[in-house]
Amino acid sequence: MIVEVRTYKIKPGRRGRLHEVIEQLERPVSDADIQDLAALLLDAIDSGASVSFMASLDMESAERWWRETISNAGERAIFVVARDAKGIAGTVQLHPAWAPNQQHRGEIAKMLVHRRARRKGIGTALMQAIEQRARESGFTLLTLDTKRGEAAEVLYERGGWTRVGVIPNYALNPDGTSCDTVVFYKTLTG
Question: Which of 41, 78, 161, 178 fits as disulfide partner to 169, beta carbons 3.0 to 4.6 Å?
Fold first, then answer.
């Protein structure tokens, strides 16, 4: 199902345009998409992103993680990707809260944009698409966390997310050093 189609300029000063398609992944996911998602995750780790994994993660393990995450996700989970001419260039997912008294709440996870596609508006488009799908699915409150000091922190602030606070030494970077995490929430309205 196509959620939204956008066109982004490559970079100021360059000629030409890059076309991106933002869409929700339908399950079951193809092997090619699993491979693209695994490559995207490895690219994020190689760039120093604190996304739950250490630098030792290999392609086979990354593919297995994506297969299990998508296949084990509940019916209300949402996976959105951005595609460019080379394949999946970005992704974001929403996981519903498990508690019966929190069915209105979802957690945003693994918002990743490949280094080849950064600074082109893809992160913003992914967040807009996941928020739109969350609204359509009845979610009214979203939460997320991100590494302190990274570009994603600014992206969420610009997107109207409210900063709750910072948790020091919350996670490890891929190289094993510790990093602080910033927690955000967003209330979705009509």
Answer: 178
